[in-house]
Amino acid sequence: MKKRKAGRIFSRSKGAREGLMLSLVRALALKERIETTEAKAKETSPLFERLVTKSKRDTLATRRELLRYFGPRLTKKMVEEIGPRYKDRPGGYTRITKTMFRKSDGAKMAIIELIK
After folding, report:
1. What is the pLDDT along the chain (116 residues), one digit of tens a residue?
2. How far is the C-alpha of 65 from the C-alpha of 51, rounded, in Å?
């Protein structure tokens, strides 16, 4: 019997889906608040929270791992600003707030933002 795999497909190939998630994570790190569809926000949140947890420790290995996802500028921001901000927090760095439906196609929209 075929079992359902975890995660959303978004009607994209694997590469396109990974690119979408990376662009959403980069935008969230840069702007700290983005508006997207509810499904994309729910998929982005766990990935971004794992990266924030890693950025709490400022080591060379951490920086090299974050460079796989971000450029040098965003890696520096993650390690020097965002990571230390949540040093005492064990998790839950993002908040997803549902908003109105998108007018053009009726998609459920949401705002994903970093908790202060």
Report:
1. 888 888 999 999 999 999 999 999 999 999 999 999 999 999 999 999 999 999 999 999 999 999 999 999 999 999 999 999 999 999 999 999 999 999 999 999 999 999 98
2. 9
- Beta partners for 110? 36, 98
Predicted structure pTM score: 0.92
Phi, psi of 94 (to 5 degrees): -120, 155
Q: Which fold has domain 14-114?
A: 50s Ribosomal Protein L17; Chain: A, (3.90.1030)
Distance of alpha carbon 41 from alpha carbon 97, whole angstroms:
9
Taking the C-alpha atoms of residue 103 and residue 73, their distance in angstroms, rounded to an integer, is 35
User: Alpha-carbon distance 94 to 83, whole Å?
Assistant: 13
